Amino acid sequence: MSDKESGIFSTIVAAPFGAVGIRVADSLLTELVYLPPRFQEKDPADFLSEKVATQILQYFDDPDYQFDLPLRPVGTTFQNAVWRGIASIPRGQVLTYGQIAKQIRSAPRAVGQACGANWYPLVIPCHRVTAAGGLGGFAHHDDETGFHLGVKRWLLAHEGVAEYA
């Protein structure tokens, strides 16, 4: 990992599946990024980065942990409708892209695109959305043996959803 790669993050937190990159600006969380294991931890640059890192670690210890973070407003009206639907899925449960689409009167493919555009994974738990016939994709990745679907599997298992392990 180069300094250029890690330099864009305010802090990097070790995760059971690799790491989580945290970006903050103007006292708001601006992005969370799942990172592969080659990324090393990075000390928080400021108070908010430390707060976000602490809350992520609390989630890794307790899947029922509720995040309380200032998020920079992002996304389209449609994406925000999808993200609200995702945020309402309780820990230990999943909904399909089609079920979310039905809730907001849309199409499953559009819901999948909005899931992949989520700036705040973990906080907005897009890993709780699956395909009708299986795991589905994750963060615009669908390689069955790839890093991102491995993260999705770990998160679902961590939250007690065993059928996708």
Automatic annotation (TrEMBL):
Location of the Methylated-DNA-[protein]-cysteine S-methyltransferase DNA binding domain: 78-161
Record carries keyword DNA damage: yes
SUPFAM superfamilies for this protein: Methylated DNA-protein cysteine methyltransferase domain, Methylated DNA-protein cysteine methyltransferase, C-terminal domain
Keywords recorded for this protein, A-Z: DNA damage
The organism's place on the tree of life at top rank: Bacteria
InterPro entries in the record: MethylDNA_cys_MeTrfase_DNA-bd, MethylDNA_cys_MeTrfase_DNAb, MGMT_N_sf, WH-like_DNA-bd_sf
Protein name (record): Methylated-DNA--[protein]-cysteine S-methyltransferase
